[in-house]
Amino acid sequence: MSLEIRALSFGYRDTPLFSSLDARPLRRGELTALVGPNGVGKSSLFRLIAGLAKPSGGTIMLDGSDTARMPSRMRAERIFLLTQHVAMRAALGVFDVVLLARRGWRGGKASDEDVARVEQTLESLGIEHLSDRMVTDLSGGQQQLVALCQALVRDPDVLLLDEPTSALDLRRQLEVMHLISDQTRARNMVTVAALHDLGLACRFADRFLLLHEGRIAADDHPEAVLADDRTGRAYGVGINLERTGKGRLVVDPYLHP
Amino acid sequence: MADVALRAGERYRLRIFRKSLFVAGAFAALLLAVCVDIGVGPGFYSPLDVLRALVAPDSVAPKLAIIVWDVRLPVAVMAVLIGAMLGVAGAQMQTILHNPLADPFTLGISSAASFGAALAIAVGVGLWPVGGTFFIAANAFLFALATSAVLFMFTRMRGVTVETFVLVGIALFFTFNALLAFIQYQSSEAQLQQIIFWMMGSLARATWTKIGICAFLLLLVVPLSWARNSMMTALAMGDERAASLGVPVARLRLEMLACISLLAATATAFVGTIGFVGLVGPHIARMLVGEDQRYFLPVSAAAGAIILSVASTLSKGITPGVIYPIGIITALVGVPFFLSLVMSIRRETWH
Q: Is the distance from CB of B149 to CB of B177 less than 8 angstroms?
């Protein structure tokens, strides 16, 4: 049971982004960090997987079936993309917004189960106290937590997170990454997160995918990818890896003279 | 506060119950406004006489029965329908374009209708070959619809964003205004007067046939929009977020644009240019119940209808014996109402 990317090609206008991109199957219960410099196509790859953009070639298979052939509503139920943080400007309440993600387009009254699930998810992210507020009144970080709630209440098979911690403070970053990693195992999801903080990524991810020059340049467990020359080359930096006394890996990037 | 002891879900249920009360309250206020509108007019009759004429037309003087049934009632009902149509069209337009300034007027649909009407009045040229009572209205309608079709085609083009769409709408607005000025410059004094009168917007053109057509359109569009209310609520959060929830954003936008065009084109064709209602009705609704479409849509419709109903009453009441074109009054009614709401809501958040 997994997500597979086969011979994927995609580009904008005249600039091809990927040509025939392949990746080893992404397994359920595994948290993968998608890393690579800006503009390399991390968000585009997510959009392709979620079906928000159409590839010019190749297929994406979820548990053996082609996602392009799924009805869009069903695909959206199974694959959820938490887009990069952009401010929400709608005059909607926090609880309403999360409930909307849970319920999809079913009409009528929200069931007790749906309401309870939203309550519980808001609590698990520590934002139960925000439930009566308007999303427009929240800070960027709080909005990002609300968006993450939306992602979790949907119970997707595949969870794609585009920089889920970009607007969060230190403590929230750790809490959110812990929660994502726990939920990935508990709900047996395929989770892929695009992360810029390699230290954070390395601490929580089971696997690193390095995207560079339109292909998966490296695909291994975090330490192996970080130790690989190609990672430093992709970002145009040097990377020192050190271990702390507690055995935790510290990523120490530096600019080449 | 008692609310604090409740769980988040219970507070949510309480909140949506309150919003439902707002919807009911808005329609009650509308009913009141309509009653006042029917009761007021150049002939001074007591409210009781008017009521009797409504319930049993045969029991009152024929003159009163005619005034109530053929003059006051069509105008009052037309005010409600047109107000609701403009309110709904404005609400949908603002939602699909993520732009609080969007309404059928700012995007040129109404200017196109005015141009079509002016063309029919001054040159006698119509896109619709048959003449008669609907000649001017039909021409206005067809021009408005053609403009929507142009906007429609732009959305189908690749790489067109919502922002460019709004810009194209504004460009159309100026184009039609220029063309309209051109016609006005060329026309005779009598024609000019007729064009200007048409543009001012008046409910005096209300007839039961037009009311039937408007009611039919609302009965067509409102259930269609209602069935898409969760999708539209999701769309209010932004295109990408809605799409990741599975909303077919492009298709939804086209469907809603078609609905808006029909409503706006018909409203303008029948009563002329009545600005402001489609812009402010939805803003009032947003302040009262937020953008959850289950409440936003009915309250926008009710707010539009109330503004037009009150404007209709005032247009008869300012100078006894004179009925002013309603297009002159709407902004005068809407602005104080809107501003008082802005102020009261701000005061609430200060506490």
A: no
Provide the domain count of chain B. Answer: 1
Judged by CB atoms closer than 8 Å, whether chains meet at B244 and A115 is answered as no
Nearest to A5, CA basis, from A57, A43, A41, A40: A57
Q: Any CB–CB contact under 8 A between B249 and chain A? A: no
**Whether pLDDT at B350 is above 50:** no
Going by C-alpha positions, the residue among A163, A217, A216, A156 that lies closest to residue A5 is A216
Domains of chain A with CATH codes: 2-254 (3.40.50.300)
* pTM strictly above 0.80: yes
In this complex, the residue of B9, B243, B245 whose CB is nearest that of residue A101 is B245
In a domain, B270, yes or no: yes
DSSP chain A: -EEEEEEEEEEETTEEEEEEEEEEEEETTEEEEEE--TTSSHHHHHHHHHTSS--SEEEEEETTEEGGGS-HHHHHHHEEEEPPP----SS-BHHHHHHHHHHTT--SPPPHHHHHHHHHHHHHTT-GGGTTSBGGGS-HHHHHHHHHHHHHHT--SEEEEESTTTT--HHHHHHHHHHHHHHHHHTT-EEEEE-S-HHHHHHH-SEEEEEETTEEEEEE-HHHHHHSHHHHHHHTSEEEEEE-TTS-EEEEEE---
Task: Encode burial over B78-98: b for 16+ CB neighbours within 10 A, e otherwise.
Answer: bbbbbbbbbbbbbbbbbbbbb
Query: Interface pTM (ipTM) of the complex?
Result: 0.88
What is the Cβ-side half-sphere exposure of residue B295, based on CA atoms within 13 angstroms? 25
Q: Do A104 and B245 touch (CB under 8 A)?
A: yes
- What digits encode the pLDDT tens for the residues A215-239? 899 999 999 999 888 899 999 999 8
Binary contact (A86, B240; C-beta < 8 A): yes
Q: What is the pLDDT of residue A82?
A: 92
B133 found inside a domain: yes
